[in-house]
Amino acid sequence: MSGTVDGLVAAFRTIEHQRMRGLPMCNAELQVEAVGFRAHKGRLCGVLITPWFMILVLMPAEGEEWSELISGSKINYRFPDGEYEVTLCDLEGIHVHLSTPLFSTVQDFPDQDSARKVAEEVLELLFAGSNPTACADPVMAELERRGSSQPVSRRKLLRGWLSAG
Question: How far is Cα 91 from Cα 106, in angstroms, rounded to an integer?
Fold first, then answer.
């Protein structure tokens, strides 16, 4: 696991200990764990298991700056298996990341091993697409849709270039 994934896990463990422990929505048999994080288009992608939910997480690539984007923004992100809506998240010092829920409740998981196996299966299916070369980066897809093949500066992008036209 990289330092960014370690930081994400540590932040969710802090949330678990400070705010979630003992709440009825939590499954006492589960703990915070990062599962199967791997590179995808230069970004780290994997599943985060917590006692209260399970999410698919996408971390920014090295040098990518998402912190100025609006938390809660939704984009469609293409994986080899298809396109999924992901939400930009920045929770109290947790690294900025994109996520989408896999299980909004984890009460039915009997133990950590069962949750981990499901997370691994999700990732296997997500990356088992038959045409990985057809996967477009969401920013590049928007550029192509607008008829532009030229890269946009980060400053221009963050100042709303994609939403301006």
Answer: 21
For 34, other C-beta atoms within 10 Å of its C-beta total 19
Q: How is 64-133 classified by DSSP, letter by letter?
A: ---TTSPTT-EEEEEETTEEEEEEEE--TTSPPEEEEEEES--TT--SHHHHHHHHHHHHHHHT--S-GG
Instruction: Identify the CA nearest to 94 among candidates 32, 1, 2, 15.
Output: 15
In angstroms, the CA 66 to CA 99 distance is: 13
Tens-digit pLDDT string for the chain (165 aa): 445 899 889 989 999 999 998 899 999 999 999 999 999 999 999 999 999 999 999 998 888 877 667 888 898 999 998 999 999 988 765 678 899 999 999 999 999 999 999 999 999 999 987 544 444 555 555 555 555 444 444 454 444 544 444
Find where tokens 């409740």 sit: 105
Tokens (6 digits) for 116: 């981990």
Distance from CA of residue 150 to its chain's centroid? Answer: 27
Distance CA 139, CA 61 (A): 13
The tokens describing 11, both together, are 């932040």
